[in-house]
Specification:
The chain has 497 residues and is an alpha/beta fold. Helices cover 29% and strands 26% of the residues. The chain has two domains: 5-284, 3-Layer(aba) Sandwich (Rossmann fold), CATH 3.40.50; 291-468, no CATH class. Helix 3 (49-59) packs parallel to helix 7 and helix 10 packs across helix 11. The chain is globular. The relative contact order is 0.14.
Length: 497
């Protein structure tokens, strides 16, 4: 009897309809973009989903057929050309693979491209058309995926990350691959169902780990999911907090369950998860501060670094990372105080390169073109760093041509390319010790809580940008209404599929 053959691939991107950033192939390549036999060697030891799936499939003595694996980070939409090229390469390799007994795909769940709102649904539909009705297709998704009925029509297994911050990507790939192996061995007959609640949530209080005796809203949802898995009701239970900056119909917080041949059980657990989110909805809301108010409070706190979370300019959520609003506030309201901030600002990098290290130049920083006199401390023609953890742990990322400019004691890291912010790796790669500053500006809604856990104070800022924490401030056009937190006090309708 011939050995079973499993095709594996990854095509991940987190879209944001509020962002104008158009993602191209170079943005995928700046994270990872590998194909064919290069996938096991380049990603096998990383914290990616593919790394975990490879470990399980090899341990099960199955033949792996690597297709294409890439992650484009986050942005507005992927260009139609880039998406078409990546999709077509993945599918062409699948067609050329010959007999395949199962497929594992690592997807995000919120991939949008120019002219297309549900890339994952299209990819899975095409995969099903190639594979036929009987070949099992297993999918892993980001905890912030927008899971659609189209995705579940074509995948019999769909499982999300358990953790936020996303430290369990490798483990998620391994869990999904293990379910696929059991399916191929005839041990289980997986069926997946979803239930969506009419709500979207800011990210700051979605943390999945907290003090054992503490109160944090995700705890109740996690207890339901792990409990239904432990008692055998379902094979897997997932909670999808959803990428909240998607102005699309049917977006909402979603529960997904995978049961062994019993759709009713999967439906019941998915509904239970969605209902628990609705019950806890008010506990997820987060207060914000204006930059001047946060800086004033930070100055009154002994020590540092005081964390200023400019979450509205989150590269990991689709923003450009180019907002200098907080830099301007620091220069105005905290003169003489040390700080570190990262800006995607290729123009300032080019000016620093022309001037050279040690030079003093007059430049304008970021989107707001904040004028300041700066000293060029360092210029790097091709800055890179390796992620210490998170969903890209072990992956090398590129910042492109970069420079460190000092405006008095404020260190401004200017890069040409954006990069998902897990901890302080980008600062460290350019010689900046963020933990020795009075203030550190972060551009994410969650990872800083772990990266700077010992900070004396942390503030979520109310700033402009496409990834705001105040979701009620957005002028939604396509989002189904009513929807919390824009509306409250209505009788929710839970959508199932």
């Amino acid at each position: 009897m011939s050995r079973k053959r499993i095709a594996i691939g990854a095509l991940l991107f987190e879209g944001n309809t509020l962002s104008t950033v158009v993602t191209e192939r170079r943005d995928f390549a700046s994270k990872y973009l590998v194909s064919g036999d290069a996938i096991p060697s380049e990603l096998g030891a990383t914290n990616t989903e593919i790394g975990g799936a490879l470990e399980v499939l090899r341990g099960a003595d199955l033949d792996v057929v690597p297709l294409l694996a890439t992650h484009g980070g986050a942005g507005g939409r992927v260009s139609a050309r880039c998406y078409g090229e990546l999709r077509d390469e993945l599918l062409a390799r699948l067609r050329a693979a010959g007999r395949v007994d199962g497929v594992y795909l690592a997807l995000h769940g919120s991939f949008i491209a120019e002219g297309l709102d549900d890339a994952e649904g299209e990819i899975l539909e095409a995969t099903r058309a190639i594979m036929g009705a009987d070949v099992p297709i297993a999918v892993s998704c980001d905890l912030h995926g927008h899971i659609t009925p189209a995705m579940l029509r074509h995948a019999c297994i769909l499982v999300g990350y358990r953790e936020y911050p996303h430290d369990d990507t490798r483990e998620t790939g391994a869990r999904v691959a293990a379910l696929l192996v059991r399916t191929l061995n005839g041990q289980i007959r997986p069926v997946s169902r979803l239930c969506r609640a009419p709500m979207i949530l800011p990210a700051q209080r979605q943390r999945t780990k907290g003090p054992a005796d503490g109160h944090w809203p995700m705890r109740a949802i996690i207890d339901i999911a792990r409990g239904r898995e432990a008692d055998g009701t379902v094979l897997a239970a997932s909670y999808f907090c959803v990428q909240p900056w998607l102005d699309l119909p049917e977006v909402g917080v979603t529960g997904v369950a995978v049961a062994d041949g019993d759709a009713a059980k999967a439906d019941r657990v998915a509904r239970e998860i969605a209902g628990a989110f609705w019950h806890k909805r008010h506990e997820f809301l987060v207060p914000t501060e204006t930059p001047p108010a946060a800086i004033a409070k930070g100055l009154a706190v002994a020590g540092g670094p005081v964390v200023l979370a400019d979450a509205a300019d989150c590269v990991g959520g689709g923003a450009a990372g180019d907002s200098a609003v907080v830099l301007e506030a620091l220069l105005r309201h905290a003169p003489g105080q040390s700080a570190a901030i990262h800006l995607v600002d290729p123009e300032s990098v080019a000016a620093a390169k022309r001037a050279g290290a040690g030079a003093v130049l007059r430049t304008r920083f970021g989107l707001q073109r904040v004028a300041a006199e700066a000293v060029v401390e360092r210029v790097e023609p091709d800055a890179r760093f390796r992620y210490s953890g998170g969903l890209m742990g072990g992956v090398e990322a590129a910042l492109g041509p970069s420079a460190v400019l000092s405006v008095g004691p404020v260190k401004v890291l200017c890069s040409s390319l954006s990069a998902y912010e897990y901890a302080d790796e980008a600062f460290a790669a350019l010689g900046i010790d963020a933990r020795r500053q009075k203030f550190v500006v972060v551009k994410n809604p969650m990872n800083y809580q772990q990266a700077y856990a010992g900070a004396p104070a942390m503030f979520v800022l109310d700033t402009p940008g496409p990834t705001p924490s105040n979701l009620a401030s957005v002028d939604w056009q396509r989002l189904d209404r009513p929807c919390f937190p824009m509306e409250d006090g209505f009788q929710p309708v839970f959508r199932t599929a």
